[in-house]
Design brief:
Elements lengths: L4 E5 L4 H10 L1 E3 L8 H6 L2 E4 L7 H5 L6 E4 L9 H6 L3 E3 L6 H16 L2 H9 L2 H5 L13 E4 L3 H11 L5 E4 L11 E3 L2 H6 L3 E4 L13 H7 L4 E4 L8 H10 L4 E4 L18 E3 L8 H19 L10
Parallel strand pairs: 1-2, 1-3, 3-4, 4-5, 6-7, 6-9, 7-8, 9-10, 10-11, 11-12
Helix pairs in contact: 1-12, 5-8
Bound molecules: 2-keto-D-gluconic acid (8YV).
C-alpha cells in the first residue's frame, strides 16, 4: 500500500521523523516551494510552528482535510478559515498539562526566592566577596490569582494549594472548583487583591492584551506576574514600563510577544526570570505530544473519529 503524503511544517526531532516516515511519505519543504502536483494531492499537514497558518496557505492546498497541530495552543492557525474550507484542526491537549503547571510553579518559586540571581551570586564568587544576598520573599501563603482556569490553570491552582496560597481565578464564567477558590469576573479587581497573577489563558484574538496596564498597576510594586500562556495576552509595552519603573514588582515569563527575538529591554531587568517558551519542553511530554499529533493523523487517514479535534 502506498503511504499517504504528509507535509511537515516545523522542526521535528529524530523520534518524530522516524515515526512519520514509517507511516507517511514525508515532505519537509516550505509551503511556497511545494510543487503543484504535490500541493493538489496533500490531504494533511503536521504543523509545529508559531508562525501564522493563514487562509491563503490553506488555499494553496486544495485537497487539505487536516491540520494536525503540535501543541495545545492553536492560535497560529486561522481555524475560522479552516472550518469554512471543511479543514479539520487537531491539537495536543492534556499530555503537556503537568509539565506546564510544574514550570509555572517553578517560575513563581524562582522569582520570589531570587533563585536565578542567587545562582549567579555563588558562581561568580560574590558570596565570598560580598556576603549574603539581600533577603527575598516567602511563597507559602501568598495570594495567587489564576487568569484562565482551563486544564493548565486548574493544574497550577491545584499545585499551589500545597503552598497554602488562597486561590482566586478569572475566567469568562465561574467554574466548579473547591469552595474556597474565589471567582472574579474582572482581572484588574482580582489583581488588586493578589500578590501574584499566573496567566494561563489560551492565545488568540479573544485574549489579546487581557493583562492591561491597569491590571499590572493593580498588582502593584510588591506584585509578581507569571506568564506561561502566550505573549499576546499581556500588554508587553506596559509590562516593560511597569517593570522598569517598579510599579510592578517582578515578572517570570516563558512567552513573549515577539519570541524568539524578545524585546532587548527584558535582558536588562533584574526583577525578571526569563524562559525560552519551554514549559512543555521535556522529553516525556514532547514525545507524548508527537504521538498524539500522529494519532490524529492516523485517525484521519483511517476515516476514524479524530482524537482531539478543535473545530
Ligand atoms: C508549543 C505550546 O507547542 O502547546 C503549546 O501551546 O505553546 C508549546 O507546547 C511548543 O513550543 C512546540 O511548538
Amino acid at each position: 500500500m502506498t503511504k499517504p503524503d504528509l507535509l511537515l511544517i516545523g522542526d521535528y526531532p529524530g523520534w518524530d521523523m522516524q515515526a512519520f516516515q514509517a507511516g507517511y511519505t514525508c515532505h519537509h519543504s516550505p509551503l511556497d516551494q511545494v510543487d503543484a502536483a504535490l500541493a493538489s494531492r496533500l490531504r494533511a499537514v503536521a504543523f509545529k510552528d508559531h508562525i501564522p497558518f493563514t487562509a491563503q496557505m490553506m488555499d494553496q492546498l486544495p485537497s487539505l482535510g487536516l491540520i494536525a497541530n503540535f501543541g495545545v495552543g492553536y492560535d497560529a492557525i486561522d481555524t475560522q478559515a479552516a472550518t469554512a474550507r471543511g479543514i479539520k484542526v487537531t491539537n495536543t491537549p492534556d499530555v503537556l498539562t503537568d509539565d506546564v503547571a510544574d514550570l509555572a510553579v517553578g517560575m513563581l518559586l524562582a522569582i520570589t526566592r531570587n533563585m536565578v540571581q542567587a545562582d549567579t551570586w555563588v558562581r561568580s564568587g560574590d558570596w565570598a566577596r560580598r556576603g549574603p544576598l539581600p533577603l527575598n520573599r516567602t511563597v507559602t501563603g501568598k495570594r495567587v490569582g489564576i487568569v484562565g482556569l482551563g486544564r493548565i490553570g486548574r493544574a497550577i491552582a491545584e499545585r499551589l494549594v500545597a503552598f497554602k496560597t488562597p486561590i482566586s481565578y478569572y475566567s469568562r464564567t465561574p467554574k466548579k472548583t473547591p469552595s474556597d477558590w474565589s471567582y472574579h469576573a474582572d482581572i484588574t479587581q482580582m489583581a488588586a487583591q493578589c500578590d501574584a497573577l499566573v496567566v494561563a489563558l489560551s492565545g488568540g484574538p479573544d485574549t489579546a492584551g487581557l493583562i492591561t496596564a491597569a491590571a499590572l498597576k493593580a498588582l502593584g510594586p510588591e506584585g509578581t506576574l507569571i506568564n506561561i500562556s502566550r505573549g499576546s495576552t499581556v500588554d508587553e509595552a506596559a509590562l516593560l514600563t511597569a517593570l522598569e519603573t517598579g510599579t510592578l514588582g517582578a515578572a517570570a515569563l516563558d512567552v513573549f510577544a515577539t519570541e524568539p527575538a524578545c524585546d532587548p529591554r527584558f535582558a536588562t531587568l533584574k526583577n525578571t526570570v526569563l524562559q525560552p517558551h519551554q514549559a512543555s519542553a521535556t522529553i516525556e511530554t514532547r514525545q507524548a505530544m508527537g504521538q498524539l499529533q500522529r494519532d490524529n493523523l492516523d485517525a484521519f487517514f483511517a476515516d476514524k473519529p479524530l482524537i482531539t479535534p478543535v473545530n
